[in-house]
Amino acid sequence: MTIPEDLLYTKDHEWIKLLADGSTALVGITDFAQHELGDIVFVELKSAGTVLRQHEVFGTVEAVKTVADLFAPVAGEILELNPSLDSAEVVNQDAYGEGWLIKLKVAGPSAIEGLLDAAAYRQLTGE
After folding, report:
1. Is the full-model pTM beyond 0.85?
2. What's the pLDDT tens digit per position in 61-82?
3. How many other CB atoms sit within 10 Å of the CB of residue 75?
């Protein structure tokens, strides 16, 4: 399993990457999560403009055998949905790159406090 060092993680297996401006971020599901779910065939997300609280469900991923909720790693506003998700298998192929789910305007700099770094996420997953 791949666990990039430059991302932060949640116990619910989402990742977040702060962008250069420090106030927007990309959010996706981890490689671990997509392997556990199996082949993802459909992704349904709340629309751009939706304001989320931390841990609030912002969508679902449907795999061949199950459906799983997606939880916001931080509070913020959805700015953009990944247009590549018309083909959901992009999440299986590149969970940390082209398979990102939403671009989020982060509520504030303290929003990322309490997220897991790569070492803590590795310990959580036993990787």
Report:
1. yes
2. 999 889 999 999 999 999 999 9
3. 17
Report phi then psi at 117, rounded to 5.
Answer: -85, 175
d(CA 59, CA 80): 13
Three-class SS of the chain: CCCCCCCEECCCCEEEEECCCCCEEEEEECHHHHHHHCCEEEEEECCCCCEECCCCEEEEEEECCCEEEEECCCCEEEEEECHHHHCCHHHHHCCCCCCCCEEEEECCHHHHCCCECHHHHHHHHCC
**8 A C-beta contact, residue 14 and residue 29:** yes
Residue 110, C-beta contacts closer than 8 angstroms, at least 6 positions apart: none
Classify 109 in phi/psi space as left (phi over 0), alpha (psi -120 to 50) or beta: alpha
**72, amino acid identity:** A
The residue behind tokens 């250069």 is 20
